[in-house]
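Weekly puzzle thread! Below is a chain. First person to post its structure in token form gets bragging rights.
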Amino acid sequence: MSTLKQVAHLAKVSESTASRILSQSTKDSARYAQSTRERVLKIAQQLNYRPNMSARALAKGKSHIIALVYPRLVDSPFSALFITQILGAVETRCRELNYSLLISSPYLSDDGPDESYHKLLSSGYLDGIIVAETLFDSSLINAALSKKIPVVAIGYGNYPHMSRSDQALGTRLIIDHLISLGHHNLGFISVVPEFTYITYRADKFRLALKANGLNYNHLPQATGNLTSESGQTAAKILLDTYPEMTAIVSFNDRMAMGALREIRVRGLRVPEDISLTGYDNLPFTADISPGLTTVDQQAEQLGREAVDQLMAVMKGQSPGLKVLEPKLIIRSSTGPART
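Winning reply:
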């Protein structure tokens, strides 16, 4: 592999001169004669020279690379569909700003993130990090801050630079919609309280139900782990134990899909026999039959906002908390409560 030293030697210039010309910086290269610039660029092309990115980052003080970090517990970032939507928006916004995106999905233990994450933080490649903060664990953020790497988060913790969807509004939209259709016998497919956003969502469902004269703790509940399979298992428990239910409220769309399978296995109709709601508005929810009533958390906007927040933090600014307004998407999986 060719080196900067070889390019400089054949072009008969110093390494610093070659480096400045190859940086493609107008300010740096304009000080040199056109013939010198052309000679350096031609030799670099002939040698198929590729700059050392870590060295360039060290010299310039930035790499134009940021990382999206999603802790691995149940899913990778590519199987967690809501995170995939955010990821696509983050990548698009990075490209618009001439940044590259690196994806990290470290395992977490009682000792914190795995070794691969610490190696990434020490690599010198990163200008900043976006953490998809889904767990009651601040070790990902703290480890980055210990390396003086700018950080923002998407989630529901107490970190000051964060974007999130308004769960209070989203849960209220779901509950108010079902109550308006005459549903009071509600069952819930929730998730174990390891996830910050799930605990946050459960708290907001409690408030929304209380505003309608219902007590969350007294309503049927079964627990899943965010996957479709766990949603089907949870729905089986609910339907076996509480046949009087007229609606199932799932904490996410994927578990709602599993619930729909279980409802169909029993020969029940949605929404005539039982209504069903999800949360997230994943792309497939509009294409299934019946279409799933759900809440759109504005995943793409969350991703774009996170990038813009990170850019502000990298400039020494304090963007604070950004809360986005979710939207209720009413489809044919909800209808009047059966009598």
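Puzzle host: Confirmed. Bonus trivia for everyone else. The radius of gyration is 26 Å.
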